[in-house]
Each structure stands twice: as structure tokens, then as C-alpha cells.
Automatic annotation (TrEMBL):
<protein>
    <submittedName>
        <fullName>SDR family oxidoreductase</fullName>
    </submittedName>
</protein>
<dbReference type="InterPro" id="IPR002347">
    <property type="entry name" value="SDR_fam"/>
</dbReference>
<dbReference type="Pfam" id="PF13561">
    <property type="entry name" value="adh_short_C2"/>
</dbReference>
<comment type="similarity">
    <text>Belongs to the short-chain dehydrogenases/reductases (SDR) family.</text>
</comment>
<dbReference type="InterPro" id="IPR036291">
    <property type="entry name" value="NAD(P)-bd_dom_sf"/>
</dbReference>
Length: 112
């Protein structure tokens, strides 16, 4: 989500995520004639062990959760299982005409 929000002090990270989105679009144009679909997924702030370690104290974790519940349309923390369906969809025949897209799976944090 830092790409869409343009997060302060994360220029290097935001730029790399923007590059992935641009790469996705360009590659989709290049290989579309070969019936190859290219898409990317932008998850929100998925609650993982790494995040818990990175955030640190229980107070900081609660503050992060409070922030996310205030900005997401779905007021709960995102779990890894919340993005599985997006991957399954893109891997299935149901997405055979979807290419060059960025699928945002973030509980309604950033809406396009």
C-alpha cells in the first residue's frame, strides 16, 4: 500500500513497488499475443510474525491495528488467508482474459 499512499521516508520502497506495477503492464503487452496473462497483487498490511517482530511492543502493535481499522473498509486485521482467493482466481481459467492488472486485496484501505 505504500506505493498508492506515497509513504514518507520510504522512497526506495515506493519506487520499487511502482516499478513492479509498470513491469506488470509492460510485460502483459509483450506476451499477450502468446496468450500469457501477467498481473500483480497488492496486499494490505498482512498480520505476520515478521510484522509483529518489526513493530515491537504490544503498545506499538495496538497502535498499528487501531490505525488500520480506521482506514480499511473491512475493520479487522488482514491475515495471510485473506489473499489466497486472489491467487487462486488468477491461477484459474476464470481469469483468462485478465492481464496487466493490479489486484488490490487490502480490505478497502486504498480504493481505485
Amino acid at each position: 500500500m505504500t506505493f498508492f499512499a506515497g509513504s514518507k521516508n520510504y522512497v526506495h520502497y515506493v519506487a520499487s513497488k511502482g516499478a513492479v506495477i509498470g513491469f506488470t503492464r509492460a510485460l502483459a503487452r509483450e506476451v499477450g499475443a502468446d496468450n500469457i496473462m501477467v498481473n500483480c497483487i497488492t496486499p494490505g498490511a498482512v498480520l505476520t510474525e515478521t510484522e509483529l517482530e518489526k513493530v515491537g511492543s504490544k503498545e506499538a502493535q495496538e497502535k498499528a491495528t487501531e490505525f488500520l481499522l480506521g482506514v480499511q473498509a473491512i475493520p479487522r486485521r488482514q491475515q495471510t488467508d485473506d489473499i489466497v482467493g486472489v491467487f487462486v482466481f488468477l491461477a484459474s481459467a476464470d481469469s483468462d482474459f485478465v492481464t496487466g492488472q493490479t489486484l488490490n486485496a487490502d480490505g478497502g484501505w486504498m480504493m481505485h
